[in-house]
Every structure is written in C-alpha cells, then in structure tokens.
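Notebook, bench 3.
Goal today: get a predicted structure for Multiple sugar transport system ATP-binding protein from Klenkia marina so we can plan the truncation constructs. The sequence was checked against the plasmid map this morning, with no discrepancies at the termini. Length recorded as 226 residues. Pasting the sequence as submitted so the record is complete.
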Amino acid sequence: MASIEMKNIVKKYGDGFPAVNDVSLDIADGEFMILVGPSGCGKSTLLRMIVGLEDITSGDMVIGGTRVNDKAPRDRNLSMVFQNYALYPHMSVYENIAFPLRLAKTSDAEVDKLVKEAADVLELHEHLERKPANLSGGQRQRVAMGRAIVRQAEAFLFDEPLSNLDAKLRGQMRTEIARLQRRLGITTVYVTHDQTEAMTLGDRVCVLRKGSIQQVASPRELYEQP
Ligand code: ADP
Ligand code: ADP
C-alpha cells in the first residue's frame, strides 16, 4: 500500500489549453479517492499519469514516497481496472485472473493459491473454468477486479469500471467495490462522471473542472454545502 502525492501536475497535449492544469492532490495510504467531473475535464489523463500510461509535462508524481515520473508502468506496481474490462476471450476465468502473476513468473503453486483467494473474495470460485463469453456483465467485471487484486499492488485505479453495466448491476457492483476496498484497505483512485458513485463510494471526492481542481471534500461535506 502506498500514498499518492501529486505536486503541480500539468499535462499538455500539443499547444492547446492544458488537459490537466496545475493539479496538487495528496491521497493517503489506504484512502478511497474519487475523481469526478464532466467529460473532458481531465480525469482519465490524470489517472493515466498515475499509472504511467501518459507522460507528465511538468510537476511531480510521488507514490509511496518515491518520485515515479520516469518509471515505466510495470515498475510502479499499480493495478488498473478498465472500463472495457480487457479480458482475454480465449482464456478461462482462472487464467485471466492469473495473467499478471504469469507475467511475473510466479510459481504454479503460488498462482493457484492467489487465484483461489481472489476468486473467494469475489465469489467466482464456481466459474474458474469458464470463458468470459459465458459470463454475465457483473461476473466479467468481477474477473477484471480479480486480476487487479491478485497482485499485491500499491494501489488500485479504476477508470469508469461500471459504465457499461445496466443500472441494477451498477448498484450491486458499487456495493461490492466499496466492500472490497474496505476489506483490503488498499489505496484506491476511482474515476467516474456518475454523481451517485461519487457520493457513495469514496472517502473523499475531488471535483475537476477544465483540468483544475475545483474542490476536494468528503461526500458528507459536499452533501451539506448549500
Ligand atoms: P475525461 O477523462 O475527464 O473525460 P480526458 O482526460 O480524457 O478527460 O481529456 C481531457 C482533455 O484532454 C480533453 O480536452 C481531451 O480532448 C484532451 N485529450 C485527451 N487525450 C488526448 C490525446 N491523446 N491527444 C490530445 N488531446 C487529448
Ligand atoms: P478512455 O480513457 O477515454 O475511456 P482509452 O481507450 O484511452 O479511452 O482508455 C483505455 C486505454 O488504455 C486503451 O485504449 C488501451 O490501449 C490502453 N492501455 C495501455 N496499456 C494497457 C494495458 N496494459 N492494459 C489495458 N489497456 C491498456
């Protein structure tokens, strides 16, 4: 687990207005932080700079006390869950969850133990031999989360993970994500444009507008303000 500190982060694509404009934000170890705001406000860009999928134009990204600006994504030890799940259709649920461990050359015995632990947490143990195509949307989303939690990562990053689900399932998965985060106590950054998700999931909410932070507050403080 690790804190995430952003110091005066700027991202410019070309010559235009910065996509992220002087953002400073400290996310504590174990905290669940929501990034919310309208389309185009810079949420995705900020998340991608935390993971290392996007270069930082200026400023410092510090994870667990270490400056990571020049570190490749694989050296940051973070787990990201994407909107489109990015599951491998030809692999079983088991192998989809095991994938990051295979990349890390983890032993078969250790893989087996870790995959089964993750499957238990996510109630996927009965589906381990199935292929993604034979799963429901919610189950697929859980496989994607299984892949994220199977590694002992420093933090979880979610990029609108529920936007492809119907309203009922979205509500259900919201509860599951909140429960999982509390159980694992792992630092989490969660991007959404959904107000309900923003107000129910996190410890704090960071509201972005045109690349800048408009406000950082707890859901309660946001709710009670005039
Ligand atoms: P959000 O995730 O809040 O919808 P983004 O971070 O995707 O916002 O985008 C922020 C701004 O940066 C937008 O104006 C968008 O058009 C621009 N942008 C994002 N990605 C790129 C890119 N690869 N090249 C140029 N501009 C981009
Ligand atoms: P948006 O953020 O607007 O929803 P993107 O397609 O830019 O749209 O966000 C997800 C992107 O992350 C994918 O396009 C994919 O190419 C990219 N990506 C980079 N590295 C990985 C990875 N290791 N696993 C999955 N996707 C990755």
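The chain has seven helices and ten strands. The chain has a mean pLDDT of 92.
Flagging this for group meeting.
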